[in-house]
Design brief:
Chain lengths: 319, 316
């Protein structure tokens, strides 16, 4: 007999195990083959760079010590990739240089994100004239040529601002300085993304409700806006790292970024142009590492974008 | 339209004045000052004499007053002397502008058609084999450090194969057109690589969007062949926002030109700015940077106006 009430018993479907959003994102990221490969490559690269210290101890090499008697040595058991124009070990300098380049990429992206988010959220949340002004500044800065500006900022003599000579020449300060100057000129993308997200959030009912209940602006920004715009920001930040590494290496190559003896992949190429006929390989290794790293980071960024955005299609994805 | 143009023009001039002040301050913070440079040229200068000269040239005045002196002179057309070349800044910059215009013009001549071609090809079958290949190419072009590509090209084409010269300009002044063109091949090739990556991605995205539009379906439905649909209907529409993208990429392109001119030894704007900063030629650096910024601002302004002219749907 059919049930008169129309109620019908369906066979119970087994529910899939509940998956957290992070599990779903991770699975989607893994389906992006190039991004997964890039992630593995980056893991290997980080291990490679961190091996610098143990390897230099093991082989008993000081990477910054010049030895003019051992210039342009070919690969040997002592110097696995040979030596450079000042007799320094190329492999260990590449490893240390990688540490510097990667650290600049990560720290700069972090600082830049803070600046960009602060500006973008202020513009979006306050609106009106503040928004108009901040976005005009962003529009102008986006259009300006960054490298010339960075060269000016990189050549500043900070002793004129009352800093002592030792301080201004300290390696940690030179590192900090490049992180700061790149952050100061390249926060624009982040600000635009943060502003767009904030404007969407600003007029949501729950934000209004919080405002009516007496919540301050800062409370709303930190409790309601920031968590909700974190997804596009994480995606943008991943893609930023590659750009920062390129900017840093270009600046260091030109001599206005991180200066020797501290090696970076960029400044290892500074002299390479003069040595092209005598030691062309010296020009190949550092650039290859920059290229591979930036490419891998960009693929990871594409993978993250694909994994986080339900509508996104993957650019470099191959099935 | 006129009101909009005037407003934007006024804004651009304001930006230029603000930037000139900022750069004036920053360049004042670069190591040394012009009197120190004179001391390098003439070490017999006594400290008293140098202090006297600082007073004479107004280096003891407050920053705002110095900026005002510079500004009022610059507005009247007196841009000062370059301490590196011992010539008026304008006389140094004019040939440099020409050199850079040549380099950037040639780059645009190749990068824009290449981006249109590859972007449209990729958009025809999103996620197809060709799209993936072009996608990887544009990713690679974005990730390549342009100074390293320059070095590799010089190693490969100049040193190993000996096909092309390793410098961007001929040695002699009366080189033939062919000779000059030969010297330009490598720099332009590197700059095209540098410029084309983001453009391809942009054209592809715009084309995918346009190809799904109703008028494209209509064009296909009325039996037009695929090439006419893509070139005459889709591409023309996708091109309009491209004007803005190109204008915005100008600053980026100029950054690339600075690096490439430096490597290939071309005395263009970029290398001029680089040399001026490296040799603390304050005046030349300041004017060079401001000129570059002016070009970028003007190109953005023109792009906004073109946008309205090209697209009848938009009124300003």
């Amino acid at each position: 007999m059919t049930d008169v009430s129309g109620h019908q018993e369906f066979p119970r479907m087994p529910l899939p195990a509940a998956q957290s959003i992070w599990q779903l994102r991770f699975d989607k990221f893994r389906s992006h083959r190039l991004a997964t490969l890039s992630l593995a490559f980056m893991a290997l690269l980080i291990v490679f760079c961190l091996l610098a210290w143990p390897l230099s101890l093991y082989l008993d090499i000081d990477p910054n010590k010049t030895n003019l008697l051992y210039r342009f040595q070919g690969p040997s058991s002592q110097h696995l990739l040979g030596t450079d124009d000042l007799g320094r070990d190329v492999l260990i300098r590449l490893m240390y240089g990688g540490q510097v380049s990667l650290a600049v990429g990560v720290f700069t992206t972090f600082l830049m994100s803070i600046i960009g988010i602060a500006i973008g959220v202020s513009a979006g949340f306050i609106g009106g004239r503040v928004d108009g002004f901040l976005m005009r500044v962003t529009d102008v800065l986006v259009a300006l040529p960054l490298i010339p500006l960075l060269i000016v900022l990189g050549s500043l003599d900070l002793t004129k601002l009352g800093m002592s000579n030792d301080q201004a020449a300290a390696p940690w300060f030179i590192f900090l300085r490049i992180v700061i100057i790149i952050s100061l000129v390249d926060w624009t993308t982040m600000a635009r993304i943060a502003r767009a997200g904030t404007i969407q959030m600003r007029d949501r009912d729950y934000v209004r409700a919080a405002q009516i209940s007496g919540a301050g602006r800062l409370y709303n920004v930190f409790i309601h806006v920031l968590p909700n715009i974190s997804t596009p920001i994480i995606v943008a930040a991943t893609l930023t790292i590659g750009r920062v590494i390129l900017l840093e290496s270009t600046l260091s190559f030109l001599g206005f970024g991180i200066v020797p003896p501290t090696p970076t992949w960029g400044n290892m190429l500074t002299n390479a142009q003069q040595l092209i006929t005598s030691a062309p390989l010296l020009a190949v290794y550092p650039g290859l590492l920059i290229f591979a790293t930036v490419m891998a980071v960009n693929f990871i960024g594409d993978g993250v974008r694909y994994a986080f955005d339900p509508r996104a299609e993957a650019e470099g994805k191959q099935d | 339209m006129l009101q909009f143009s005037l407003k934007r023009l006024f804004q651009s001039i304001l930006v230029l004045i603000v930037m000139s002040f900022l750069l004036f301050v920053l360049i004042g913070l670069m190591p040394g000052d012009p009197i120190d440079n004179m001391f390098e040229g003439n070490p017999s200068l006594t400290p008293e004499l140098m202090a006297r000269m600082r007073e004479l040239y107004g280096f003891d005045q407050p920053l705002s007053l110095r900026y005002w002196h510079w500004f009022s002179a610059a507005v009247q057309g007196d841009l000062g002397y370059s301490t590196m070349y011992f010539r008026p800044v304008m006389a140094v910059l004019a040939p440099a502008v020409l050199q850079t215009a040549k380099l950037l013009g040639l780059t645009l001549l190749f990068s824009v058609p290449l981006a249109l071609l590859l972007g449209s090809l990729a958009a025809r079958r999103p996620n197809g084999v060709l799209d993936s290949a072009i996608g990887i190419f544009s990713f690679a072009a974005i990730s390549l450090p342009n100074f390293w590509v320059s070095l590799l090209f010089i190693i490969l084409f100049s040193v190993t194969l000996g096909w092309l010269p390793a410098s961007g300009v001929p040695m002699s002044n009366d080189a033939s057109f062919l000779e000059e063109a030969q010297h330009l091949v490598l720099p332009v090739a590197v700059l095209v690589m540098f410029h084309v990556g983001p453009l391809i991605r942009y054209v592809r995205a715009a084309m995918i969007e346009t190809l799904s539009a109703d008028f494209v379906r209509t064009a296909r439905a009325k039996g037009l062949d695929e090439r006419a649909v893509i070139v005459r209907h889709a591409l023309r529409n996708a091109l309009i926002p491209m004007v803005t993208v190109l204008a915005l990429s100008f600053g980026h392109l100029f950054s690339g030109a600075l690096v490439i001119e430096t490597i290939f030894g071309m005395l263009g704007m970029g290398k001029m700015i680089f040399d001026a900063i490296a040799n603390t030629d304050f005046n030349l650096a300041l004017i060079g940077l401001l000129l570059a910024i002016t070009v970028v601002l003007v190109s953005n302004l023109v792009a906004d106006l073109c946008y309205a002219l090209l697209d009848p749907r938009i009124t300003l």
